[in-house]
Amino acid sequence: MKFVVQRVSEASVSVDGEVLGQIGRGYMVLIGVGEGDTKADADKYLKKLIALRIFDDEAGKTNLSLADVGGSLLLISQFTLYANCKKGNRPSFFHAGDPQAAEELYEYICEEAAKQVPVVRKGVFGAHMQVSLINDGPFTVILEDL
After folding, report:
1. Which of 7, 58, 69, 82 has the most CB atoms around it within 10 Å of its CB?
2. H-run or E-run covering 3
């Protein structure tokens, strides 16, 4: 599993010109599900995501969590996080999870996140999406191999 976490001041996702999800301050998270990933993996990544302290406190130190700042989540599925570009110029996605299993885990992550974060928005699994964001910092963290 891989999460690319971007601290944002705002973010949105659209499909066919229709905005499906929009947040203010929070995290826009690209979620890649790999072969063999489980709900236990998803739980571990979600726990780490929600506990991350990457918002500035009053002293300007990255010391505050999503809950501390009343932040929101925009969760986007992205199998291309598993692109392997070692051979040739066309990426291979051999290690990306099976689409059906990946969709189930993505939906599970979204449902579990909504139990802990008041505002959770999401994209559409497998859809061609347009994601817009203002990365605050910029500040981007990659969670993998947890």
Report:
1. 7
2. strand 2-15
| Domain limits, the chain | 2-144
pLDDT per residue over 41-87, tens digit each? 999 999 999 999 999 999 999 999 999 999 999 999 999 998 888 88
CA angle 9, 10, 16 (to 5 degrees): 160
Beta bridge partners of 89: none
| Cα separation, 112 vs 93, whole angstroms | 27
- DSSP for 25-78, please give it: SEEEEEEE-BTT--HHHHHHHHHHHHH-EEEE-TTS-EEEETTTTT-EEEEEE-
CATH number assigned to the domain covering 2-144: 3.50.80.10
